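step=encode ok
step=design start
structure_in=
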């Protein structure tokens, strides 16, 4: 590592960040489920980005709005989901990921575990994680096919509607789904550019089988067989 490369590395007082295994990708690809299965199978520590981003980081989100001269209140649901194009929604989401990633890194810096840490979430973008990696093999990007995403929408109640009261729920949901597709496509392009593996989830394998595929990819960094948890 050159001096310039060292200067670009994020602060990592406990050496946690460079040892993390990362799962990124599209919404509704099963990232959280796979991470939990691997946690039980190998005794890993899991960081769920979506949970922290939606709850633990809200104070930071409000403070940032105030700093930028915006209202501290949540944006109007209609403005977010109904009166905005999916392209603009995707662009705004992508533009916000770097700031939100720094908040996630603050969480992760504090984790010290005797087992590998696996971090999952759509905001853990390949281009943001790549500078931390000592090998592209520490990361996978999971994306759903359209058919699998449609199945998730049928099976997962929380996926069926957008948050907040909106004047046109059907349009809001269409916009949201198209935004999610655009953001997932961007993650695939970024991963391919950086040599990070992309796993397309089409429903032909159950969650346990997908977890085994991911485990095989992460195998150099997982505990040996005799130390695995049942």
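sequence_out=
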């Amino acid at each position: 590592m050159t001096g310039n490369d060292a200067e670009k590395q994020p602060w990592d007082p406990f050496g946690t960040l460079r040892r993390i295994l990362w799962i990124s990708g599209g919404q509704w690809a099963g990232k959280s489920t796979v991470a939990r299965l691997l946690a039980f199978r190998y005794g890993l520590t899991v960081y769920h980005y979506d949970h922290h981003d939606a709850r633990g980081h809200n104070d930071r989100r409000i403070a940032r709005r105030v700093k930028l001269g915006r209202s501290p209140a949540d944006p109007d649901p209609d403005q977010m989901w109904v009166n905005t194009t999916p392209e603009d929604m995707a662009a705004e989401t992508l533009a916000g990921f770097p700031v939100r990633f720094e908040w996630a890194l603050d969480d992760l810096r504090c984790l010290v575990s005797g087992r590998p840490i696996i971090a999952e979430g759509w905001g853990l973008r390949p281009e943001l994680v790549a500078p931390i990696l000592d090998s592209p093999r520490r990361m996978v990007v999971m994306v759903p096919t359209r058919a699998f995403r449609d199945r998730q929408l049928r099976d997962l109640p929380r996926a069926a509607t957008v948050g907040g009261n909106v004047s046109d729920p059907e349009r809001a949901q269409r916009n949201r789904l198209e935004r999610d597709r655009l953001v997932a496509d961007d993650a695939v392009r970024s991963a391919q550019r950086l040599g990070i593996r992309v796993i397309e989830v089409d429903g032909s394998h159950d969650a346990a089988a997908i977890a085994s595929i991911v485990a095989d990819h992460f195998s150099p960094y997982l505990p040996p067989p005799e130390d695995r948890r049942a």
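step=design ok
step=annotate ok -> The first helix runs from residue 3 to 8.
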